[in-house]
């Protein structure tokens, strides 16, 4: 889901305050089980041996007694992570904003306005959410459905922890560890290859208001891997991490690079920026350093953060080369 500024002022910022979770497992170690198995076969017995487990999520210690076979995801980021770690065959429904991967069983369920009756109708044995909207965690708990609250990550390490949580809670811990290791390796490679003395500044746009993100946010940490300086860090009222900028702020700061995370939602491009008062003279516009991003990839904190980092790395290399 995109962190639209209207949500940032409410639901998202509330979620950010809950972020930060690691996973622990009780009983036997969780065995690698990349897909659901038929009852009675050897792999099913192996999977069952890893439970019960207790996962330390955003809503505290969550006990999961048996390997989930009917998972409902109300978080697009969690959906991406579940499929990446091999839990896709265990997922029976995802929310209406989950659009990746294509095979995810998209439904009319909402993560923004969760309907407990509609969720329970899917007969889930595990539900994953990014926000505890309307007390959905407690409501599902009343009917015996375990819930993992995995809120918006504020640090890259929190994104890794959440993938580990999902691995432990679904019986796919080994694959989750592989995914995290792969992310760390690739991000490390990209950061190491970045120009060391480019001293470039940047602006990351969330929407046309414009709202942006500071270095203290998850997205800001991704940019920091490449030694970029965020112009939003000097914005007034930036303490929440997502300041609303004055119309003249970006033209006055004149960033070397502009990254647009509102190309899909709002149709933004170098051409539309040039039509804004004072923006046509931006160095980034004149030097063709306006970088369009996929809105979803730029707003989620799952495995595809590597794709975002690769896009940033490419732009930095080009800018540094002149």
From TrEMBL:
Keywords, ordered alphabetically: Signal
Keyword Signal annotated: yes
Domain of life: Bacteria
Keyword flag Signal: yes
Gene3D superfamilies: Nitrogenase molybdenum iron protein domain (3.40.50.1980)
Signal peptide range in chain numbering: 1-19
SUPFAM superfamilies on file: Helical backbone' metal receptor
Fe/B12 periplasmic-binding domain sequence ranges: 70-320
Classification via Pfam families: Peripla_BP_2
Family from the record: Belongs to the bacterial solute-binding protein 8 family.
Descriptive protein name: ABC transporter substrate-binding protein
Provenance organism: Streptosporangium fragile
């Amino acid at each position: 889901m995109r962190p639209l500024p209207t949500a940032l002022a409410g639901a998202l910022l509330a979620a950010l305050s809950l972020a930060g979770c690691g996973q622990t497992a009780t009983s036997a170690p969780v065995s690698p089980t990349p897909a659901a198995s038929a009852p009675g076969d050897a792999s099913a017995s192996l999977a069952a041996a890893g439970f019960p487990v207790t996962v330390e999520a955003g809503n505290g210690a969550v006990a999961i007694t048996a390997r989930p076979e009917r998972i409902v995801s109300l978080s697009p980021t969690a959906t991406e992570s579940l499929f990446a770690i091999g839990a896709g065959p265990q997922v029976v429904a995802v929310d209406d904003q989950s659009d990746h991967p294509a095979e995810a069983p998209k439904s009319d369920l909402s993560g923004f306005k969760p309907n407990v009756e509609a969720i329970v109708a899917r007969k889930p044995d595990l539900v994953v959410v990014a926000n505890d909207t309307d007390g959905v965690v407690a409501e599902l708990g009343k009917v015996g459905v375990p819930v993992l609250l995995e809120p918006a990550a504020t640090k890259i390490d929190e994104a890794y922890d959440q993938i580990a949580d999902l691995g432990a809670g679904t019986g796919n811990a080994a694959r989750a560890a592989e995914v995290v290791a792969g992310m760390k390796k690739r991000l490390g490679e990209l950061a190491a290859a970045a120009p060391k003395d480019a001293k470039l500044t940047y602006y990351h746009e969330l929407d046309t208001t414009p709202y942006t993100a500071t270095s203290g946010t998850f997205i800001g940490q991704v940019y920091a891997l490449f030694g970029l300086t965020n112009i939003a860090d000097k914005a007034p009222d930036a303490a929440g991490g997502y300041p609303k900028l004055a119309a003249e702020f970006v033209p006055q700061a004149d960033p070397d690079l502009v990254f647009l995370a509102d190309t899909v939602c709002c149709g933004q491009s170098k051409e539309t920026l040039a039509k804004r008062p004072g923006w046509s003279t931006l160095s980034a516009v004149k030097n063709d350093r306006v970088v369009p991003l996929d809105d979803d990839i730029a707003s989620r904190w799952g495995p595809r953060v590597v794709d975002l980092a690769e896009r940033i790395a490419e732009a930095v290399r080009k800018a540094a080369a002149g």
